[in-house]
């Protein structure tokens, strides 16, 4: 009898097999390099927008055009990070687009709602000491008031869905996994939150947005998936958008009033003012947010699905 044929052996290294965790060719990312990536992508976004405004000045106040420039810059940055740090990785797995325990999703929605009051109050406190221009909010309010239903829906899609998803793909996706290959979760959560804050330009927003970024990072790490963080970010953005949409309806109704009729309101009064919230409401929302974060980590410790998802990040 002839000898049996030798067992089949793959030439592909173990780490590159589809069913295995990890990729030996994935390169860790240092904190300085993460800062370089984030700042370079932000600079590219600003440069694209400056070029567009030079060609078409009206683009400066066009939110959709601004998002288009941001999307191009972020996607180019994502391509560069993938090519350098994980050329053979699955894009979905690298970004953390994976299933997790379903309870993370309602927790993310509630957390996005609960954080609105304390973060808004903190920003208002800072803005009182170092005021910031609100022309952008007023322009958005006027756009919503004068725009068609399609234009309003487009703005909502950008502000509530596409914008948050794009930012999460970069900060809790493309930067998070390579950082986790070198640092522990607390360092990565703080670092990505800081870079997320800096990318929003205004120094008055650094602390409020940084705190929001910390909460997003905690949800992202605890769940092992970027999807709950995306939902939380979208919920957080939806609250002021819905408020502005309601205010724009008031503006539209007021514009129908004859010019000689009294107008007892000011556009600025229609903008969200966290300072008008009772301190008890802000304190209650803060406590609720802390309890929800505790629930997130309790679920993370008990859920096998979340544990497996987190292992994918560390593989």
From TrEMBL:
Family annotation (InterPro entries):
CAAX_protease (IPR052710), Rce1/LyrA-like_dom (IPR003675)
Read off the lineage from the record.
Bacteria, Pseudomonadati, Myxococcota, Polyangia, Polyangiales
Residue ranges spanning the membrane: these are 34-55, 62-82, 102-126, 183-199, 206-223, 280-301
Which biological process terms from the Gene Ontology are attached to this UniProt entry? Answer: CAAX-box protein maturation
Q: Does the keyword Transmembrane apply?
A: yes
Q: Which domain of life is it from?
A: Bacteria
Q: Where is the CAAX prenyl protease 2/Lysostaphin resistance protein A-like domain?
A: 153-239
Which named protein is this?
Answer: CAAX prenyl protease 2/Lysostaphin resistance protein A-like domain-containing protein
Q: Which PANTHER family match?
A: CAAX AMINO TERMINAL PROTEASE FAMILY PROTEIN, SLR1288 PROTEIN
Task: State the organism of origin.
Answer: Chondromyces crocatus
In alphabetical order, the GO MF annotations are: endopeptidase activity
Region: Disordered; residue ranges are 1-23
């Amino acid at each position: 009898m002839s000898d049996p044929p030798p067992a089949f052996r793959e030439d592909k290294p173990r780490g590159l097999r589809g069913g295995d965790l990890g990729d030996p060719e994935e390169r860790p990312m240092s904190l300085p390099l993460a800062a370089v990536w984030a700042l370079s992508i932000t600079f590219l976004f600003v440069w694209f927008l400056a070029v567009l405004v030079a060609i078409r000045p009206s683009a400066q106040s066009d939110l959709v055009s601004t998002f288009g420039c941001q999307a191009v810059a972020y996607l180019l940055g994502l391509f560069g990070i993938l090519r350098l740090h994980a050329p053979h990785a699955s894009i979905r797995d690298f970004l953390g687009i994976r299933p997790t325990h379903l309870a993370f999703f309602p927790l993310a929605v509630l957390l996005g709602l609960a954080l609105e009051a304390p973060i808004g109050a903190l920003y208002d406190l800072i803005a009182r000491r170092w005021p910031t221009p609100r022309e952008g909010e007023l322009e958005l309010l006027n756009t919503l008031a004068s725009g068609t239903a399609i234009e309003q829906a487009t703005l909502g899609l950008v502000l509530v869905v596409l914008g948050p998803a794009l930012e999460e793909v970069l900060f809790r996706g493309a930067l998070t996994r390579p950082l986790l290959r070198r640092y522990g979760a607390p360092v990565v959560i703080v670092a990505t939150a800081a870079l997320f804050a800096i990318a929003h330009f205004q120094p008055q927003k650094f602390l409020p947005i940084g705190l929001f970024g910390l909460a997003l990072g905690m949800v992202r790490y605890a769940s092992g998936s970027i999807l709950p963080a995306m939902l939380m970010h979208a919920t957080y953005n939806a609250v002021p958008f819905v408020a502005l949409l309601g205010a724009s309806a008031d503006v539209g109704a007021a514009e129908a009033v004859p010019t000689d009729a009294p107008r007892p309101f000011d556009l600025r009064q229609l903008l969200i003012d966290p300072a008008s919230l009772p301190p008890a409401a802000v304190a209650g929302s803060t406590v609720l947010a802390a309890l929800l974060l505790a629930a997130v980590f309790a679920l993370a410790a008990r859920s096998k699905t979340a544990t497996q998802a987190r292992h994918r990040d560390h593989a």
